[in-house]
Amino acid sequence: HPEGYRKAVRLMDQAEKFGRPILTFIDTPGAACDLGAEERGQGEAIARCLLAMAGYHVPVISTVIGEGGSGGALALGVGNVLLMLENSFYSVIAPESCATILWKDSGKAKEAAAALKFTAQDLLNLGVADELVREPQGGAHNSLQQTAEELSQVIAKHLIRLRTEDPEVLCRKRYEKLRAIGPFQETSAINLTKTLD
After folding, report:
1. For residue 195, what are the CA distances in angstroms to 35, 111, 117, 182, 191?
2. Is 118 exposed, middle or buried (0-12, 13-18, 19+ CB in 10 A)?
3. Measured between alpha carbons, how far is 8 from 154 in angstroms, rounded to an integer?
4. Could you read off the pLDDT of 135-181 as tens digits, one per residue?
5. From the CB of residue 1, how many other CB atoms can be counted at a distance below 10 Å?
6. C-alpha–C-alpha distance, residues 12 and 20, integer Å
7. Distances (CA, A) of 83 to 5, 39, 68, 142, 197
8. CA 177 to CA 81: how far, in whole Å?
9. Four-point Cα dihedral 148, 149, 150, 154, nearest 10
10. For residues 186 and 165, what is the distance between their CA atoms, to the nearest angstrom?
């Protein structure tokens, strides 16, 4: 809900003020999309969260620990480092919604999922995720203690490195990392039409 994003920004602002690193843990199918949330400014709250995270001068580590869906997850994913549990996923849209938009058929969710490339391994290969965190055999839920210990070690490793960086450099690198996601090549409408034919 919008109030949750506003609270997150308030707490992250406090971390910035006192020079504390920011750690976010992402596990959400997405932000609330009901009428009440929209009336209370859901889109604006997510946008402010994205803007705030892009400008902090402290280390920011975001970790996807389960489902990272839509703007609800993206709002907390602007970090110097993006970690993912090896069985987690992270995407701007759910496969069913993507299939409905592209093919007008939510039944094509498998095709949409393949096109989205939203698995942890896909995102590591694309350079969106920085490191995958090993899970116990069968998944994180089989040993929460082991998962927490593994995650703690990985976060600590990145924090040690990030704390040596100049605050201005941290902020600039986070912005550059965000801007580097999804490079594209512009083409003319004529070339695009020929490609689609």
Report:
1. 40, 20, 22, 20, 6
2. buried
3. 23
4. 999 989 989 999 999 999 999 999 999 999 999 999 999 999 988 88
5. 15
6. 9
7. 20, 33, 12, 20, 40
8. 9
9. 100
10. 35
